[in-house]
Amino acid sequence: MGTVGADVWDLVFPPGPPERIADMFSAAVVADAIRPYDADLAQSVETCRDWRHGYHRVFRGMTALAIGAPEVSLGMADAGLRSVRHMLRFSVGRMVATLDTVDVDAEADGTVLETAEVAGEAPAVKRLEVPWRGLLLSEDALRLRLAEWQTHGILEADFVAAVERVIDHPEWLQLPGFRVTVTGAGAELGPLRPLLGWGADVLAVDRPGRVWWERLRASAKAGAGVMRFPVADGEPGVDISRSFPALARWITAHSDVRPVLGLYAGLPGAAGVRLAVASDVLAEMLLRRHPDAALALLGSPTDTYAVPASVVAAARDQLAQRGFRGSAQDLLHRVAPRSLYRLSYTRPIFDAEGGAWGLFDNLPALAGPDYALAQRLPRWRAVLAQSADHTVSFTVAPPAWTRGLSREHAWRTAAYRAASRFGIEVFDPATARTLLAAKLVADLYAEDAPRMPNPEALFATGAAHGGLWRQPFAPRSLLAPAAISGTVRELLHRPR
Prior knowledge:
Shape: globular
CATH class of the largest domain: Alpha Beta
CATH topology of the largest domain: Rossmann fold
CATH architecture of the largest domain: 3-Layer(aba) Sandwich
Largest sheet: 8 strands, mixed
Structural class: alpha/beta
Strand content: 5-15%
CATH superfamily of the largest domain: NAD(P)-binding Rossmann-like Domain
Helix content: 40-55%
Distance between the termini: 71 Å
């Protein structure tokens, strides 16, 4: 199929019951991805009567499968993304077609996005400075704090080493030779604000909205770099899921230096799946057009990952060092074995080389399959891009006090406040995004980095999980104790 000659695309699910079609779509994609490698697991997906509650076990199983061998990880990623393109539809006017029957590159010729820019008015920050608890850490003070985080299992050693390389090479901060496109420019943990503060040249992509873009413009003026952004019909911003062909052309027009595509946009529910698909098509187009292009992504702390044996060993060491508190925790676990103080790592997973891995599972039970699939699609793209020799920066982000947390139930906020008692640090967004942006900078200049033998190691290497991986209990089994502890603490410290 060729050009359909329209400016606006709408990504839609296949025909089906409106209240069930998103779940049906995610189940079909997952089944297609795993069928060649575990036919029984795929059949359990296809026959599942309650996918909204049964998806969790399957995503755990997919993660375990992927670590088994490189060909399985890459094969599932390829099959899953091909399934998405075969089933998801786009509609233009009265025309409806599947993504795999359209020349997406040709569609980019139908719409031309204009460009606006905002130049920063502040001097560039010439060294890496990280805000932390009212302080601005740099040089030796920052190295000391990084060492503390590593010692307490908050940040992985490779993450710390990456940030230290940026401390040693402050000339990298302006990203000479690169131009980063930040989709989801307003994301709280995204790199837009740090990069602009360092004087980088950034392409910012986010949804339309006057108030939204006033904030982004203000952030750009407060920095030292240049923020360019697309303009459609005289208004800043574009909806990625409706404009990705034109957006790909716009990004390419600004690729006179090496392009980096950062995928940070996200939405809840079924809209999040459509956005993830549109972002993936955008990534595929850019990587195909620019063999030297790099890909940047953040992994959610609320997902499931395969972690190396060293992480599992650290968790078990913590378990053995609990003292009297451990006896009380064990007693509570015997009372409620499925919900309180359940061990995070029980049986090892072995890869093709005989290496042992653990399965970390923090996928929220009530998040739904839409959320899980929206997290998995960029992971699939990341391993495929890395296998094609593209530079990929993927970092698992820590839990953070984001604005969205205030919209959650009060008990989750209370649990976060007590997280430190369980070896977990919840980061201030300004601290987290600066560290994560520094990790991105380091990854872009790490051209001599050795190829990982297993694609899934991309997610475990250099993680900034905030201590979630190295404490011994499944995070969901800590929510109730942490919420109670946090609530008691708030009551004790409430002003009288």
